[in-house]
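Hey, I was hoping to borrow your eyes for a little while. There's a protein on my desk that I can't quite get my head around. The fold is given in discrete form, as structure tokens running alongside the sequence. I'd be grateful if you could look everything over and explain what you see. Here's the protein in full, and shout if anything looks odd to you:
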Amino acid sequence: MAPLRLVVGPLDALFVAAVLLDFVRAGNPERLGLRRTAPSRVKLSLDFARTLQLARGRPGLALEVHEAYPATFEARAGDGPAPSGASERGVFDAAGELVLERAYRASRRGRFTLGDLRVRVRGPLQLCARQARFAGALELAVEPALLRLKETLRLAASERWRDLGVRSLRRRGGRSEFESLREYVTGDEVRHIDWKASARRAKPMVKSYQVERGQELVLLIDCGRRMRVPGGAGARAAWTKLDWALDAALEIAAAALAQGDRVGAAAFERALIAYVAPVRGARAQARLSSALFPLQASERDGDLAHALRELAVRHRRRATVLVLSDVADPLAVPEQRAALAAASRHHRLVFAALDDPALREAAAGADAALRATALELMAERARSLRALATSGARVLDALPAEAAAPLLAAWLDERRAG
């Protein structure tokens, strides 16, 4: 046995020496230079990039990085999610530098942080690895995605909003000035036809008037329990009614600000929980977004009557008020109607009732019992909406993901009505 020990001993010593050499050549990862960057504001359900820049590494060495990130974030790889717990890997270049980029997607609005980084460097022989933890937090604000902002701005600046199906109201006063002539489209008022211009061009032409600038719009958003219901599908299946409501509200705010109007916003549960007084200007959109994007739906019912009374105290000038909410329980509909009627005496009110997509899906499903129940609930909802429509407020009924277009048309109609 003695000759065997003489052979193994030198091999052990050689292996230990190789491990020690690999350990030394890996270097101390705590001495690495590390810089992490990401946008301070990102969009809900849209990918964003985080970049790590590492310096002072040994050329050719492999590196792994594990990053702590919120449970509501999803690490992305290509067009899909990265495997759970997957690390980022790279090799230092000849200058001892390495850049790693990772895409994330947030599934919830609010303020979040990317946390500590655990960095592992492997020696050139791959016999050992040295690890270091870099403490730190990178703060991010996850805001509404504003999916249709460009389309909303384009529609608001054109006459195509009439195609969205909202009847044009006759103007009830207010100042307007002649702007231009254009071709007649269905829905235009006959009294605006320029008969001389129509005769010259052999087709009906109408006078287009510039609506008075400087009107006021207030967005009133329900954050009660009904707004917690999922209202999307596909990649946005986790979006709640509140997510869609905020998206639509901020898009319409951008359109109104582009028209020169003053825009404000408020959110409510049992009472107002956020309020931004109407203003105009380049910074107004950022103020509105900052006040609204962290909002989350409550476990309690929203009190529309209390919110409208409080809004009347805070904002006394006549304005168009867009309410994004849903129909109350049948027993509470008379109270909801009374609240809308009282507020309609002072403001131009548009009430957008966001429906439940799952209810419509059940009503069209194959399960007879479930379909019958869903149809009864839909009929009850329709009765409630008819009751609310007698309040003097304009009442809209739409799926959360489709609410922006009819709400935009209703606002433009009210705006042109004066």
The first strand starts at residue 33 and ends at 37. The chain has two domains: 30-143, 149-175+212-417. Residues 30-143 form a domain with the Immunoglobulin-like fold (CATH 2.60.40.10).
